[in-house]
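=== Per-residue structure ===
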Amino acid sequence: MVWIRGYKLQKNVPVPYYVNEQIRVYVDSLVDQLKQELAVKYSISLDKSWQSEACYLLIRNNKTERVCKVSFRNHEGNLQKYDYEVYLSDYRTWNECEKHFLNMLHSFLEPLE
């Protein structure tokens, strides 16, 4: 279970606002990194839930217009369909989560070609 600012996230358990804010900071940083690395071929956008910790990353191939939707979250029960769901509580730290995501990025992008 991931620890964020001294708080231990547990799947399907609402988190304090300050933890939601820190998760948004982490995901914003990841998005900035992706925008720099993928800018020529892909458009990157991010939506955030203001009711939970969930953040929704959209990666669009500029040529084919195909989109990959990735949800960073800690709870189940969403009504929308995402191509990939990253459950924060599956990792010990944000760095571990981010590293795993970046290692899997190629497999996320492949179907967009």
Q: What stands out?
A: The first strand starts at residue 3 and ends at 4. Helices lie at 17-38, 94-109. Strands lie at 3-4, 7-8, 42-48, 55-61, 67-73, 84-87. The radius of gyration is 14 Å.
